[in-house]
From TrEMBL:
InterPro entries assigned: Met8-like, NAD(P)-bd_dom_sf, SirC_C, Sirohaem_synthase_central, Sirohaem_synthase_N
Sequence ranges assigned to domain Siroheme synthase central in this UniProt record: 117-143
Biological pathway: Porphyrin-containing compound metabolism; siroheme biosynthesis; sirohydrochlorin from precorrin-2: step 1/1
UniProt keywords, alphabetically: NAD, Oxidoreductase, Porphyrin biosynthesis
Annotated organism of origin: Parageobacillus caldoxylosilyticus NBRC 107762
Name of the protein this chain belongs to: precorrin-2 dehydrogenase
One GO biological process term: siroheme biosynthetic process
The EC number(s) this enzyme carries: 1.3.1.76
SUPFAM superfamilies: NAD(P)-binding Rossmann-fold domains, Siroheme synthase middle domains-like
GO terms for MF: ferrochelatase activity; precorrin-2 dehydrogenase activity
Catalytic activity: precorrin-2 + NAD(+) = sirohydrochlorin + NADH + 2 H(+)
Enzyme class: oxidoreductase
Amino acid sequence: MGYPIMLNVANQSVLVVGGGKVAERKIYGLLEAKAKITVVAPTITTGIEQLVADKKLIWRQKTFSPDDMKEAWIVIAATNNRAVNEAVAKAAKPYQLINIADDPERSNFHVPAVVRRGRLTIAISTGGASPTIAQQIRRRLEELYDDDYGRYIDFLYECRQWILRHVRDEQKRKALFKAIADESFCKRGNWEEEFEQLLENAMKEEIRRKEE
């Protein structure tokens, strides 16, 4: 049983060994997380070529050697050659996070199927049992949590920052957090107006208490 975590890989060195479609899919996810990516492969897909041209990553046009791993914090072996992937696994240091695409048992982390909606991230993993099932669940969740829900989560973030800065009373904070996170609040859709009304009601209540 794995221990789920969210890693901040922004500006962290990531090595991807392989230049095929599997590597390309891994790379797009890493770019979303703002990782510093180096690809080692004799050939790469046209998609990766475009990323190289756009200076989104570094490509070393060569076969893998253990020296390629020196600066990497995260290493992903995504070639279609099991011997190469095995060589990557053997070269990994204890402090490195490594994912072998065709050998979950040799990996110390797995990349889940992911749904992203703004600040909302939902990860689905079957622990290597069935990536196909993980993708099926991901598609269901994408329908359940659409782009509007992503905007709602972004709205909640902005509200939370405002409340933390301007509302001193702990009980009032909790009440506001609970109100804007309520499912009915989300479904009504008029989030900004509803939030302003909640704040106005809170102010009226405070004034009433002071007068008492």
